[in-house]
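Appendix B, record 7
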Amino acid sequence: MSAFEGLTRPHVSIKIPAELFEPAALETFSGTLSPVALVRGAQRYSLNEPLTYTLTLTHTGEAFVVAGTLHASVTTPCARCLDDARYECSASFTEYVFVSEEAAQSKDLEDDEFFVLPANHELDIIEMLSSALVLELPNLIVCSDDCKGLCSVCGCNLNKETCSCAEKRKESDVEQHPFAQLRSLLDE
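Structure tokens (predicted):
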């Protein structure tokens, strides 16, 4: 199942031409995809512009090797302060598309390691693109490397305002620290 939501087209497919079934034949396909969002677990990413992709299909006899690249620009809440964080993502990927179910079963592969070409020779590439993008996105995206985040006491955005909670917490941390007694010995 695709991680994309809100596609402007329900499927993005490539019709494999008959000449591509010749041994060692290859062809390159390019295009754009305009999903509204990508969902990965609880994280939701909005695409800032259409995702662009290029795929090269090479026929190997019993399968096609799909070598692809994609580029996307996404926005998601910053992992520290919850403001919008933008991330530019480029990914390269390789997938195998067997020409028949029998050819796929002759290999010792798991079901999620390959695709099977449908009888109509239209290859739906949504799953390939969404998987490649999901794998390339980092677990945490921040708005900037020096983002201060939110105050753990009052919740204010420390990038935009200051609060007295930090000073109170600092004093409290020193007093409650398990090695606080040792610090007093060093001060002597």
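Remarks on this record: The helical segments are 101-105, 126-136, 165-176, 180-187. Residues 165-176 form the longest helix (12 residues).
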